[in-house]
Protein backbone atom coordinates (compact mmCIF):
# COMPACT_ATOMS: atom_id res chain seq x y z
CA UNK A 1 0.00 0.00 0.00
CA UNK A 2 2.86 2.38 0.82
CA UNK A 3 4.28 1.87 -2.68
CA UNK A 4 1.03 2.99 -4.32
CA UNK A 5 0.83 6.07 -2.06
CA UNK A 6 4.38 7.01 -3.05
CA UNK A 7 3.49 6.38 -6.70
CA UNK A 8 0.63 8.88 -6.49
CA UNK A 9 2.71 11.50 -4.66
CA UNK A 10 6.12 11.27 -6.30
CA UNK A 11 5.66 9.73 -9.74
CA UNK A 12 3.13 11.66 -11.87
CA UNK A 13 4.14 9.89 -15.08
CA UNK A 14 3.92 6.54 -13.33
CA UNK A 15 0.46 7.50 -12.06
CA UNK A 16 -0.57 8.47 -15.59
CA UNK A 17 0.75 5.14 -16.89
CA UNK A 18 -1.15 3.28 -14.19
CA UNK A 19 -4.35 5.17 -15.11
CA UNK A 20 -3.92 4.19 -18.77
CA UNK A 21 -3.42 0.56 -17.76
CA UNK A 22 -6.53 0.62 -15.55
CA UNK A 23 -8.62 2.09 -18.38
CA UNK A 24 -7.36 -0.64 -20.72
CA UNK A 25 -8.17 -3.34 -18.18
CA UNK A 26 -11.66 -1.96 -17.60
CA UNK A 27 -12.33 -1.64 -21.34
CA UNK A 28 -11.11 -5.17 -22.03
CA UNK A 29 -13.10 -6.67 -19.15
CA UNK A 30 -16.32 -4.81 -20.01
CA UNK A 31 -16.03 -4.98 -23.80
CA UNK A 32 -19.24 -6.99 -24.18
CA UNK A 33 -21.25 -4.38 -22.27
CA UNK A 34 -19.74 -1.04 -23.33
CA UNK A 35 -19.85 -1.65 -27.09
CA UNK A 36 -23.18 -1.72 -28.96
CA UNK A 37 -21.73 -3.79 -31.83
CA UNK A 38 -20.04 -7.14 -32.25
CA UNK A 39 -16.38 -7.11 -33.23
CA UNK A 40 -17.22 -8.98 -36.46
CA UNK A 41 -20.56 -7.30 -37.15
CA UNK A 42 -20.55 -5.90 -40.69
CA UNK A 43 -22.68 -3.35 -42.53
CA UNK A 44 -21.70 -2.66 -46.13
CA UNK A 45 -23.89 0.43 -46.16
CA UNK A 46 -21.65 2.02 -43.52
CA UNK A 47 -18.25 1.40 -45.11
CA UNK A 48 -15.45 3.94 -44.56
CA UNK A 49 -17.32 6.30 -42.25
CA UNK A 50 -14.77 8.65 -40.69
CA UNK A 51 -16.67 9.90 -37.61
CA UNK A 52 -20.35 9.78 -36.76
CA UNK A 53 -22.57 9.73 -33.65
CA UNK A 54 -23.07 5.99 -34.19
CA UNK A 55 -19.38 5.27 -34.87
CA UNK A 56 -17.12 7.52 -32.82
CA UNK A 57 -13.88 6.35 -34.44
CA UNK A 58 -15.34 5.41 -37.82
CA UNK A 59 -15.76 2.13 -39.64
CA UNK A 60 -13.57 -0.07 -41.81
CA UNK A 61 -13.94 -1.51 -45.32
CA UNK A 62 -16.63 -3.94 -44.15
CA UNK A 63 -18.58 -1.42 -42.10
CA UNK A 64 -17.33 -2.78 -38.77
CA UNK A 65 -17.17 -0.32 -35.88
CA UNK A 66 -13.53 0.60 -35.25
CA UNK A 67 -13.96 1.49 -31.58
CA UNK A 68 -15.50 -1.92 -30.91
CA UNK A 69 -12.63 -3.68 -32.62
CA UNK A 70 -10.08 -1.62 -30.70
CA UNK A 71 -11.71 -2.52 -27.38
CA UNK A 72 -11.83 -6.22 -28.21
CA UNK A 73 -8.26 -5.93 -29.53
CA UNK A 74 -7.26 -4.64 -26.09
CA UNK A 75 -8.73 -7.81 -24.59
CA UNK A 76 -6.59 -9.99 -26.87
CA UNK A 77 -3.45 -7.91 -26.24
CA UNK A 78 -3.88 -7.96 -22.47
CA UNK A 79 -4.75 -11.65 -22.41
CA UNK A 80 -1.62 -12.51 -24.37
CA UNK A 81 0.47 -9.96 -22.46
CA UNK A 82 -0.49 -11.00 -18.94
CA UNK A 83 -0.49 -14.69 -19.80
CA UNK A 84 2.95 -14.57 -21.40
CA UNK A 85 4.41 -12.43 -18.62
CA UNK A 86 2.98 -14.69 -15.91
CA UNK A 87 4.42 -17.78 -17.58
CA UNK A 88 7.70 -16.02 -18.32
CA UNK A 89 8.04 -14.68 -14.76
CA UNK A 90 7.67 -18.17 -13.31
CA UNK A 91 10.20 -19.56 -15.78
CA UNK A 92 12.66 -16.68 -15.27
CA UNK A 93 12.40 -16.94 -11.48
CA UNK A 94 12.87 -20.71 -11.41
CA UNK A 95 15.79 -20.59 -13.84
CA UNK A 96 17.48 -17.57 -12.29
CA UNK A 97 17.15 -18.61 -8.64
CA UNK A 98 18.18 -22.23 -9.27
CA UNK A 99 21.11 -21.15 -11.41
CA UNK A 100 22.34 -18.65 -8.81
CA UNK A 101 21.74 -20.81 -5.75
CA UNK A 102 23.31 -24.07 -6.87
CA UNK A 103 25.91 -22.69 -9.28
CA UNK A 104 28.44 -25.13 -10.69
CA UNK A 105 27.45 -27.35 -13.59
CA UNK A 106 23.76 -26.51 -13.32
CA UNK A 107 24.53 -22.81 -13.62
CA UNK A 108 26.86 -23.46 -16.56
CA UNK A 109 24.30 -25.62 -18.36
CA UNK A 110 21.40 -23.20 -17.86
CA UNK A 111 23.40 -20.13 -18.85
CA UNK A 112 24.75 -21.74 -22.01
CA UNK A 113 21.16 -22.57 -22.95
CA UNK A 114 20.22 -18.92 -22.40
CA UNK A 115 23.21 -17.85 -24.52
CA UNK A 116 22.14 -20.17 -27.33
CA UNK A 117 18.60 -18.76 -27.28
CA UNK A 118 19.77 -15.13 -27.24
CA UNK A 119 22.21 -15.73 -30.09
CA UNK A 120 19.32 -15.72 -32.57
CA UNK A 121 17.37 -12.57 -33.55
CA UNK A 122 14.31 -12.69 -31.25
CA UNK A 123 11.62 -11.80 -33.78
CA UNK A 124 13.02 -14.16 -36.41
CA UNK A 125 13.15 -17.00 -33.88
CA UNK A 126 9.58 -16.36 -32.75
CA UNK A 127 8.37 -16.23 -36.35
CA UNK A 128 10.02 -19.58 -37.07
CA UNK A 129 8.51 -21.27 -34.02
CA UNK A 130 5.01 -19.89 -34.65
CA UNK A 131 5.14 -20.84 -38.33
CA UNK A 132 5.74 -24.43 -37.19
CA UNK A 133 3.15 -24.45 -34.40
CA UNK A 134 0.51 -22.40 -36.19
CA UNK A 135 -1.05 -19.12 -35.02
CA UNK A 136 -3.43 -19.29 -32.06
CA UNK A 137 -3.93 -17.45 -28.78
CA UNK A 138 -2.50 -20.36 -26.78
CA UNK A 139 0.53 -20.85 -29.01
CA UNK A 140 1.51 -17.20 -29.16
CA UNK A 141 1.04 -16.79 -25.40
CA UNK A 142 3.17 -19.85 -24.67
CA UNK A 143 5.94 -18.93 -27.11
CA UNK A 144 6.13 -15.32 -25.91
CA UNK A 145 6.09 -16.52 -22.30
CA UNK A 146 9.01 -18.88 -22.86
CA UNK A 147 10.93 -16.17 -24.71
CA UNK A 148 10.26 -13.64 -21.94
CA UNK A 149 11.33 -16.10 -19.25
CA UNK A 150 14.59 -17.07 -20.93
CA UNK A 151 15.60 -13.49 -21.70
CA UNK A 152 14.88 -12.19 -18.19
CA UNK A 153 16.34 -15.12 -16.26
CA UNK A 154 19.71 -13.35 -16.41
CA UNK A 155 18.29 -10.38 -14.48
CA UNK A 156 16.81 -12.63 -11.78
CA UNK A 157 20.04 -14.63 -11.58
CA UNK A 158 22.11 -11.50 -11.04
CA UNK A 159 19.92 -10.33 -8.16
CA UNK A 160 19.79 -13.81 -6.64
CA UNK A 161 23.60 -14.07 -6.77
CA UNK A 162 23.98 -10.86 -4.77
CA UNK A 163 21.39 -11.95 -2.20
CA UNK A 164 22.98 -15.38 -1.88
CA UNK A 165 26.13 -13.78 -0.47
CA UNK A 166 24.31 -11.90 2.32
CA UNK A 167 24.92 -12.93 5.91
CA UNK A 168 21.29 -13.82 6.62
CA UNK A 169 21.46 -16.55 3.96
CA UNK A 170 24.65 -17.92 5.49
CA UNK A 171 23.00 -17.78 8.92
CA UNK A 172 20.03 -19.76 7.67
CA UNK A 173 22.35 -22.42 6.31
CA UNK A 174 24.29 -22.51 9.57
CA UNK A 175 21.06 -23.07 11.49
CA UNK A 176 20.31 -26.12 9.34
CA UNK A 177 17.89 -24.73 6.75
CA UNK A 178 17.65 -26.94 3.69
CA UNK A 179 17.98 -25.90 0.08
CA UNK A 180 14.24 -25.50 -0.48
CA UNK A 181 13.71 -23.46 2.68
CA UNK A 182 16.69 -21.23 1.97
CA UNK A 183 15.75 -20.59 -1.65
CA UNK A 184 12.01 -20.09 -1.07
CA UNK A 185 12.12 -18.49 2.37
CA UNK A 186 15.15 -16.20 2.13
CA UNK A 187 16.22 -15.63 -1.48
CA UNK A 188 12.89 -15.57 -3.32
CA UNK A 189 11.19 -12.90 -1.12
CA UNK A 190 14.14 -10.56 -1.70
CA UNK A 191 14.02 -11.19 -5.45
CA UNK A 192 10.29 -10.48 -5.59
CA UNK A 193 10.57 -6.67 -6.09
CA UNK A 194 12.82 -7.26 -9.10
CA UNK A 195 10.37 -9.82 -10.48
CA UNK A 196 7.52 -7.28 -10.19
CA UNK A 197 9.54 -4.60 -11.99
CA UNK A 198 10.67 -6.97 -14.75
CA UNK A 199 7.12 -8.22 -15.26
CA UNK A 200 5.63 -4.72 -15.40
CA UNK A 201 8.18 -3.34 -17.84
CA UNK A 202 8.08 -6.56 -19.87
CA UNK A 203 4.34 -6.25 -20.52
CA UNK A 204 4.89 -3.46 -23.02
CA UNK A 205 7.52 -5.50 -24.85
CA UNK A 206 5.26 -8.56 -25.02
CA UNK A 207 2.28 -6.52 -26.28
CA UNK A 208 4.46 -4.84 -28.91
CA UNK A 209 5.91 -8.19 -29.99
CA UNK A 210 2.42 -9.70 -30.27
CA UNK A 211 1.37 -6.74 -32.43
CA UNK A 212 4.45 -7.23 -34.62
CA UNK A 213 3.67 -10.91 -35.11
CA UNK A 214 0.03 -10.10 -35.88
CA UNK A 215 1.18 -7.48 -38.36
CA UNK A 216 3.22 -10.18 -40.10
CA UNK A 217 0.28 -12.60 -40.12
CA UNK A 218 1.56 -14.91 -37.36
CA UNK A 219 -0.51 -13.60 -34.48
CA UNK A 220 -4.03 -14.40 -33.32
CA UNK A 221 -5.99 -15.49 -36.42
CA UNK A 222 -9.20 -13.80 -37.66
CA UNK A 223 -11.98 -13.12 -36.90
CA UNK A 224 -10.57 -11.96 -33.57
CA UNK A 225 -9.31 -8.36 -33.87
CA UNK A 226 -5.77 -7.48 -32.85
CA UNK A 227 -4.09 -4.09 -33.07
CA UNK A 228 -1.25 -5.44 -35.19
CA UNK A 229 -3.67 -7.25 -37.50
CA UNK A 230 -5.76 -4.10 -37.91
CA UNK A 231 -2.64 -2.18 -38.91
CA UNK A 232 -1.60 -4.89 -41.35
CA UNK A 233 -4.87 -5.60 -43.13
CA UNK A 234 -7.26 -2.65 -43.32
CA UNK A 235 -4.62 -0.14 -42.23
CA UNK A 236 -2.21 -0.87 -45.07
CA UNK A 237 -4.75 -1.61 -47.79
CA UNK A 238 -6.82 1.52 -47.22
CA UNK A 239 -4.32 3.90 -45.62
CA UNK A 240 -4.87 6.73 -48.10
CA UNK A 241 -8.62 6.29 -48.50
CA UNK A 242 -9.32 5.87 -44.77
CA UNK A 243 -6.26 6.91 -42.71
CA UNK A 244 -8.11 6.42 -39.42
CA UNK A 245 -7.90 2.66 -39.96
CA UNK A 246 -4.15 2.91 -39.32
CA UNK A 247 -4.11 5.88 -36.96
CA UNK A 248 -6.37 4.59 -34.19
CA UNK A 249 -4.79 1.11 -33.78
CA UNK A 250 -1.37 2.78 -33.72
CA UNK A 251 -2.57 5.24 -31.05
CA UNK A 252 -3.98 2.41 -28.94
CA UNK A 253 -0.76 0.44 -29.22
CA UNK A 254 1.35 3.50 -28.39
CA UNK A 255 -0.75 4.32 -25.33
CA UNK A 256 -0.49 0.74 -24.07
CA UNK A 257 3.30 0.69 -24.44
CA UNK A 258 3.59 4.15 -22.86
CA UNK A 259 1.36 3.19 -19.93
CA UNK A 260 3.19 -0.01 -19.04
CA UNK A 261 6.62 1.59 -19.52
CA UNK A 262 5.83 4.56 -17.27
CA UNK A 263 4.27 2.34 -14.62
CA UNK A 264 7.20 -0.08 -14.76
CA UNK A 265 9.81 2.70 -14.52
CA UNK A 266 8.01 4.24 -11.55
CA UNK A 267 7.77 0.90 -9.73
CA UNK A 268 11.45 0.27 -10.44
CA UNK A 269 12.39 3.60 -8.85
CA UNK A 270 10.24 2.88 -5.81
CA UNK A 271 11.11 -0.80 -5.27
CA UNK A 272 14.82 -0.79 -6.13
CA UNK A 273 16.73 0.33 -2.99
CA UNK A 274 19.62 1.56 -5.15
CA UNK A 275 17.33 4.08 -6.87
CA UNK A 276 15.19 5.29 -3.97
CA UNK A 277 17.44 8.23 -3.35
CA UNK A 278 17.49 9.27 -7.04
Q: Summed up, what is this model?
A:
The protein is an all-alpha fold and 278 residues long. The protein is built from eleven helices and no strands.
Structural commentary:
The structure is a single chain. By secondary structure, the protein is mostly helical. It has a domain at about 10-30 and about 70-210 and about 260-270: MetI-like fold (Orthogonal Bundle). About 75% of the residues lie in helices and about 0% in strands. It is built from 11 helices and no strands. The chain has helices at about 1-10, 10-30, 30-35, 65-100, 105-120, 120-135, 135-165, 165-175, 180-215, 225-235, 245-270. The model has no long low-confidence stretch (mean pLDDT about 85).
Produce the secondary structure layout.
Elements: H1 2-10, H2 12-29, H3 31-34, H4 66-102, H5 104-118, H6 122-133, H7 137-164, H8 167-174, H9 179-215, H10 227-237, H11 244-271
What is the overall shape?
A: elongated
| CATH-derived architecture of the domain at 12-31 and 69-211 and 260-271 | Orthogonal Bundle
Q: Averaging pLDDT over every residue, what do you get?
A: 86
CATH topology of the domain at 12-31 and 69-211 and 260-271: MetI-like fold
Going by helix content, strand content and strand pairing, the class is mainly alpha
